[in-house]
Structures are given as structure tokens and as C-alpha cells.
Amino acid sequence: MEIAAPVSPTPRTVEDIFKDFSNRRNALVRALTVDVDEFFGYCDPEKENLCLYGYSNGSWEVALPAEEVPPEMPEPALGINFARDGMHRRDWLTLVAVHSDSWLLSVAFFFGARLNANERYGLGPIRSGVSRVSLCSLYSEALAQCPLVLRWLFER
Predict the structure, then answer these.
(1) Which of 25, 59, 54, 36 is closest to 156 using CA atoms?
(2) How far is CA 127 from CA 34, 66, 74, 86, 152, in A?
(3) Which of 16, 20, 45, 57 lies 20 to 30 Å from 113, alpha-carbon distance?
(4) Cα-flanking dihedrals φ and ψ of residue 82, to 5°?
(5) Is the pLDDT assigned to residue 156 strictly greater than 50?
(6) Three-class SS string for the chain?
(7) What is the reported pLDDT for 4?
(8) What is the DSSP pairing of strand 51-54 with strand 60-63?
(9) Which domain of life is it from (predicted)?
(10) Of the given ranges (65-69, 116-120, 131-135), which has the lowest mean pLDDT?
(11) Whether the predicted pLDDT of 28 surpasses 90
């Protein structure tokens, strides 16, 4: 797995926030498409509440949520593993992807809260210009059959 260059722990500029968002998004897309069988295996319904994390270095992890309350930053959807065996696989992956989209936006705007109004305006492309994780997971079968499209997707 290729890992992107890490972003500073607390992005402070629009460019850093966008790079952090893109790296986390690419990690989540990879988990739900390329590494889907591995991801599926980690989400054992017999385990406690699990979350899918996408990191700013481009890696992903299925883990328990942070124990500290309140968390330093927004937490992803809790308990993604419980519905795994009660739904069709594709529907479950779509559900996880939709939750991942909302988590990505909440993390980006969490970091963006420190920006002034003009700088926050620069976060607009995050909402509108980047394809959503849920769209990528819906078309993962088509993407897997077209390596050029897949490569283009991860290089964005």
C-alpha cells in the first residue's frame, strides 16, 4: 500500500486542510474498494463498537473509538461492524461510505474552525469539487476493472 506524505498533526491553512482531507479520503476509498476484503474481515460483529479511520498519512484502520472524552477531533461512525452480517455486503459498504463522507467533512470543518471567514470560504471545493467516498464505493466494481481510472482516482 502506498502511503501519502504526512500532513502536520493540526492543519492550519486551507491547503493543509485540503491535503489532510484528500489523504484521509483516499485512505477510506482504498479501504472500501481495493482493500475491501481485508476491511470486511476486520469488521467482526462479535467485537465491540468499531470505527473506520482514515489517516492523514494515507493509511486506514478499523479500531475502537478513542477513550478520551471529549475526543480531540470528531469521531467516525461508531459500530460499523454490527450491521455487517444483517445487510447485503454492497449495502453495508455503501452505509459505511456515507458515514465516512460525513466524518471527513466534520474533520475538515473542525480544522477549518480556526480559519477566518475568507479562509473558510476556500474550503468550498471540499464540499463540491471532490468526489465522495460513497460514490467511489458504489462504483468499485467498475473501477477494479479499469486500472487507469483507479490510478487517477488515487493520484488526486
Answers:
(1) 25
(2) 24, 26, 17, 31, 20
(3) 57
(4) -70, -35
(5) no
(6) CCCCCCCCCCCCCHHHHHHHHHHHHHHHHHHHCCCHHHHHHHCCCCCCCCEEEECCCCCEEEECCCCCCCCCCCCCCCCCCCCHHHCCHHHHHHHHHHHHHHHHHHHHHHHHCCCCHHHHHCCHHHHHCCCCHHHHHHCHHHHHCCHHHHHHHHHC
(7) 52
(8) antiparallel
(9) Eukaryota
(10) 131-135
(11) yes
Q: Can you read off the three cell numbers belonging to residue 27?
A: 485512505
Q: Which three cell numbers stand for residue 50?
A: 468499531
Give the predicted TM-score (pTM) of the model: 0.79
Least confident of 24-33, 55-64, 85-94, 124-133: 124-133
Dist. CA 59–CA 93, nearest whole Å: 18
